[in-house]
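Letters spell out the chain; the tokens describe the backbone. To illustrate:

===
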Amino acid sequence: NGVIAQGLVLTHGCSDSLIINQTNQMVTGIDLKQLSIVVTKDAILIVPKGHSQAVKQIVEQLKADGRSDLL
């Protein structure tokens, strides 16, 4: 189904997605397509695949806002 999952993750009908969960909470995805999801104890990132440039902009905004603790 093209889903790469790490940690406590349960998917149904998902394809071409990456879900990484670094917490003890269950992350569940239904009918997700072409998404990258990263869940940590401090933050959750959900981004369409192929939008890595936008992630860089978010990182720069977090740095500018003094939130390097989230990086």
Remarks:
- The mean pLDDT is 93.
- The CA atoms of residues 3 and 17 lie 5 Å apart.
- The beta strands are 3-6, 9-12, 17-21, 27-30, 35-39, 44-48.
